[in-house]
Amino acid sequence: MTQHSPRSGLDRRQLIKGLGAASLLPLLGSVPPFTIGNQHAGQVVVAGGGFGGATAAKYLKRANPAIEVILVEPAEIFHTCPGSNLHLGGLRSMESIAQGYDELKDHYGVRVIHASVDDVDPTAHTARLSTGRELKYDRLILSPGIDFRWSALEGYDETAAQQVPHAWKAGAQTELLRSQLLAMEEGGTFVMVVPANPYRCPPAPYERASLVASFLARYKPKAKVLILDAKDSFSKQALFQQGWEELYGDRIEWVGHSDGGRAIRVDAARREVETESGTVHRADVLNVIPPQKAGTIAERAGTTDDSGWAPVKPETFESQHVEDVFVIGDAAIADPMPKSAFCASAQAKVVAAAVAASLEARPAPEAYWTHACYSLIGPEYAVSEAGVYRVQDGVIAEVAGAGGLSPQDASRTTRALEAEYAIGWYNAICQDTWGTKA
């Protein structure tokens, strides 16, 4: 991600706090206010009920209550990836990151079907569900998140993930990794395998390593964390490494690609990882985050390219390949915006405005997006990054000077404030998306 020089002092903290809370009020600062109307209403199917899909469904109904909005999501209770690292670190319960769909159904009139969209016929404008049912659509919004490239890392597939969890989709995998951490013997090593870009939430592996180290420091003080990385640099690297040194000393070791950190083979039964340098690392708990691609339905709908991700039209996020199909969130190619919950929400609001306008034969409002990303390094120690994005010369571009990073060498008071803002951000975005209060 592009990084700018950080702002300093109160202005910087006010910017981050504003992006984390006030900008989640009605539109997250993403698009002009919607005009409520009821003309030319159509039917919109939304596939995926995470931060992108649920937000898109809600804001479509806010744009025009006469639009028939159908949200298709397999899970009756959706566990968010943001917050799941806190659960691994023993700082948050799974119940606290569980979201439901009652507000969307009862307050906004969104029809929610608990199934998955398995196929799309763009000519007939139909979406076929896992139940066999077909839904007609005037517009289709895909927010399927990620799937994994199971063949990309030798020895790591869906079966291996039941022994060596990825926990990159929150829920059962998160609980499995948590149980392994609890059972790990004192003096053991937690080994994490991190893929090359792009993947869901660039700083999340390093937040996970931090909060695992926090847990180990409290309960297994002789244990260590080893990060094997397919990259030579990572998001907020200097801030993370400064925090690691302050809080954990040498408990966390990061090995980048050039130093032999890229994994090429996994033996799940033995909990071993071989890197391309030929070194074999044995873990007491092994967490493998595999290479990723757009959720499967994005590919089946014809929206992805050879990269495995879905290119979109910057102004509206309509697929570049399939008319009347829009792709948001992790599945979309939206560089330089990261694949994050905040960006998925911001994109959803732009798409809701664009889809509502298209159904009324109006031009889409001018699009812009904001982004704020908090990473907890300890329970009372967080760092952040912010950005603002617009369409310039036909592509999405970061607005120079509008964002930046937390200041290096900040006081513990500042880091503690950012930790408070991180929790406030999570509570605010969940309330904005699902209407829930933590």
UniProtKB/TrEMBL annotation:
Source taxon at top rank: Bacteria
Flavoprotein among keywords: yes
Pfam families: FCSD-flav_bind, FCSD_central, Pyr_redox_2
Domain annotation Flavocytochrome c sulphide dehydrogenase flavin-binding: ranges: 366-434
InterPro entries, per database record: FAD/NAD-bd_sf, FAD/NAD-binding_dom, FAD/NAD-linked_Rdtase_dimer_sf, FCSD_central, FlavoCytC_S_DH_flav-bd, FlavoCytC_S_DH_flav-bd_sf, SQRD, TAT_signal
Domain annotation Sulfide dehydrogenase [flavocytochrome c] flavoprotein chain central: ranges: 174-290
Occurrences of domain FAD/NAD(P)-binding (ranges): 43-160
Entry keywords, A to Z: FAD, Flavoprotein
PANTHER family, per the entry: FAD-DEPENDENT PYRIDINE NUCLEOTIDE-DISULPHIDE OXIDOREDUCTASE, PTHR43755
Protein name: NAD(P)/FAD-dependent oxidoreductase
